[in-house]
Structure formats: C-alpha cells, structure tokens
Design brief:
Blueprint lengths: L11 E5 L9 H7 L4 H8 L2 E5 H26 L1 H14 L5
Antiparallel strand pairs: 1-2
The chain binds zinc ion (ZN).
Length: 97
C-alpha cells in the first residue's frame, strides 16, 4: 500500500501505470533534453507520482508476482515429471545397514 506522502521533489518518482505502455522513463526524456514537451507530457500522463520508497515497493512486488506466477505455472505443468524425479531420488538413497 502506498504511503500517500508528498515529499521533496527529489524523493518523488513517476511510476507508469500497469495498463499503460511505457516508452521511456520520464527522467530519461527530461535528461535527453532533445525531446519535445508534448512527448514528455504524454509520458507523464501515463504515470502516477509516488515517493521513491513506494515506487521501489511497487516495482519489486510486480516482479516478484511475475516470477512467482511463472514458477507456479512451471511446477503445475511439470508436476508428474517432478514427482518421478523425486521418487527416483528417494529410491536411490541407500538404506542404513
Ligand atoms: Zn510512499
């Protein structure tokens, strides 16, 4: 959950909304110095302004969710194969004498 704070400008960032197609970071467009104001405004309109900490949390949560979803899909798809491998591994362990 976002903190809702408005901090000093250097602690606020433009976070692209998930439904929008990101062409470039707003800071990169500004830093480029050669792009039009119109292009800058178009990109800014795709964003929400959040503090740097919330931006990091959002970014991390999104990546974590994507990784977790891929891992779960992999496990479901290969469940039988994984069970065979685990059974083979369990059978290969020598019984204590
Ligand atoms: Zn925040």
């Amino acid at each position: 959950m976002d903190c809702g704070r408005f901090l000093e400008p250097w602690l606020m960032e433009f976070d692209h909304k998930p439904c929008e197609t990101k062409v470039a970071d707003v800071s990169a467009i500004v830093g480029n110095g050669t792009c039009s104001v119109r292009r800058l405004f178009v990109e800014m309109a795709k964003c929400e302004v959040v503090c740097v900490e919330c931006h990091r949390r959002r970014t991390f949560a999104g990546r974590w969710n994507e990784s977790l979803q891929r891992a779960l899909a992999y496990l479901v798809k290969h469940r039988l194969e994984l069970e065979k491998l685990m059974a083979a591994e369990a059978n290969s362990v020598e019984a204590p004498r």
